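User: Fold this one for me? It's Transposon Tn7 transposition protein TnsD C-termianl domain-containing protein.
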Amino acid sequence: MVNFFPELYPDELLYSGIARYHVRVGNLDAKSTLRDLYDKDTITAVVEMTSNLDTLINNLPTVIYTADEIIRNHTMYPYFAAFIPKDRADRLYQLIKGNNGSKIYNELGLSNKILKLNNFLRFCPECYREDIDKYGETYWHRIHQVAGVDYCTFHKCRLLDSKISVRNKNRQEYIHAHLEIRKYDIEEMEREQKCSLFSNNENILEKFIVVAQNVKYLMDSNIRHQELNYFREIYLNKLIDLGLANRKKIFQDIILLKFKAYWGEEFLNSINCNFDIEKSSNWVTTITRKHRKGFHPIQHILFINFLGLDIKAVFEEEINAPRKTNVISIKTDEEKSTYRSKWDKLMKAFPDESKTQIRKRDRSTYTWLYKYDNEWLKKNSPTKKVGSRKEQLIDWNKRDEEILILVKKAINEIKMSSDKPERITITLIAKKIKKETMLQKHMERLPKTKAFLNYNIESLEEFQLRRVKWAIRELDNTNAIYSKWDVLNKAGLRNILIYEKYLNEKNI
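Assistant: Here's what I get for Transposon Tn7 transposition protein TnsD C-termianl domain-containing protein.
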């Protein structure tokens, strides 16, 4: 048993904690550290999910950590196990605790072609600076090492590659993040990154951020594991709602074209998830079929977002996915009458809404009827309206006024918020007021809203100035003396010219 082990930081990889232990105790070689912690020196330094965890726990000072705490908070188990059935997730969990690490990736059911890993350990330059301010050192953040996560979820900036290979030549060496990264010219690395392919493409940047935020949800949540085809049933039902499938056929050709249009070739290539439309074995086609093999979490994330689903709802809510069962559920006439009445009231209250829109107003009623009274539900739901007729029913002047009120309120709340500023963009406002589709497809029909948005959206420089003003207010509240560098650090900026522009505006 060792007398000391460093406290693991939030979202720190176990690999990183072991590297810090190695430096703190002053061991001359990696094998000495392995013998300290694992009672043997043949352990491989694995970034994502290591094994022999029970041995490690037994060798740590009493009651510092449990195996469950480390597995869920300091390995990539929650991410890789999210979409696999409970029995396989349990076996994977036991492999991490036990001494048979060679079987860990086989249990995921992913081929080597699908299970792509980053080439190098990565870090966020802003997290690096904040870690030093907060802890006096930095560490390897777990989410930064996920393949497909190219941007920091907190700072929205591009992750930088270190010089440390994920599959190090010395397979037993644990590299200390702080001692490594402090050797780099980070500002030069950032300048090079700004010249990269995606730096000025806001659309692609937003896609990276969406993927990263979905990964973070999987990492941070205690997922309830589902049967293998649970997700396929959810996807199928949503495809039916979107008119991309019916109970007899999935319209694969249309799905493939729409999927590529939604994510874009450039983005799919960048995260190694592109596919050949001509091949019927492509992953987008097979993910909608009966699941006989595993799919990478990134592939699920891409498909979930393509369908317009919320990943949290997929795991935490009862979505309209029928459960196949051998037990016949007999429902009383009284129950049917109750749910039918609820549905009828919704239909009368919202006569112009589609079935999908009404369903969102009362998911439990819809789900019950879908499962147990489906024929009645089909006959008593809104029929699909012809697009031109539906648009004729909409009073666009009234709709414009209604949305304008929401937009003004949202922008005012953003500007008045004491939280760290968010850049005012059309995308952000659309999300705030939950009108993404309306503003994306019908902006030309909303002239007042469009004019107000165009006047109020922020340029990058305007946003940076607002961050400076926010940082100064925050620092003023501390009643402490601070410098311009403190302001820039608080604002998350590095450009001194922005601060000087602020001073010029104030005539200071």
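One thing worth pointing out: The CA atoms of residues 202 and 438 lie 20 Å apart.
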